[in-house]
Amino acid sequence: MDHLKIDSLSKSFKRHRVLNQVSLEIKPGLFGLLGPNGAGKTTFMRIIATILRPDEGEIRFNGIDWSKNPDQVRKMLGYLPQDFGLFRNITARESLEYIGSLKGIPKNHLYFEIKKVLEEVNLQEYENKKVGGFSGGMRRRLGIAQAILGEPQLIMVDEPTAGLDPEERIRFRNLLKRLGNQNRIVFLSTHIVEDIQATCEQIAVLNKGKAQIFNSTSELAKIAKDKVWKLTVNEEQFNEIEKNYKIISSNMTESGIDLRILSNSKPNDDALSVDPSVEEGYLTWIHQ
What we know:
Elements: E1 4-13, E2 16-26, E3 29-34, H1 41-48, E4 56-61, E5 64-65, H2 70-75, E6 77-80, H3 92-103, H4 107-120, H5 136-148, E7 154-158, H6 166-180, E8 185-190, H7 193-199, E9 202-207, E10 210-214, H8 217-221, E11 228-233, H9 235-244, E12 246-253, E13 256-262, E14 272-273, H10 278-287
Parallel strand pairs: 3-8, 3-9, 6-7, 7-8
Antiparallel strand pairs: 1-2, 1-4, 4-5, 9-10, 11-13, 11-14, 12-13
């Protein structure tokens, strides 16, 4: 399978530059786009989904040019947006029958396609239950089911675990991993570092319209090498440290307050340099 190639993509709304010359090359598998809220991730996803047109730049995949063949792009694309609405008064199967008809899937194939995707997302027992009675996690899984209906080569999911409880979040991550192992591109956009760390082989970080690609989560973590410090302080020292340094985490213990601090220099004589986490590498990159 070809790589998805995004070259010099730019987009502005009035005078605000949301994307600025973004270039990425994405191979088959699970790809994570990480960035804070307002970084331009949803705009980027909507351009790839052909909902928005870029001001500049090109997107190509399997010889298809996005600007010249948007209808052809949509036929190979499955998309779960951040705000995904469903008809609440119809069943899961009826929802997928409606989506399948919009995708142009022949009726004689649609029954078996729906059966297959419901099994894939573990909703086969609820196919005749009305969507209004689904939990948030079940609605998200039904959203993935409609996205993978018709076996698209490119699947895009925007902030898929936002608002889910921990158990449902783990279930959803495992589902994305399975989809990413099926010789297609699964494009995950999120601001939750843990989602990327748990699922993705390829990563890009987007902030202030600029993007950088990383070959692994460990490569992203290394951005914060020699910049993360561990220190135990009392309450008075904590107040002083908080004024002058970026505290990543704090934990109350019997001996005081254990801190992890992000700083280019040693914040205290007693501070110890520690290996950075992926989240600390990410925070270092977006604040540099």
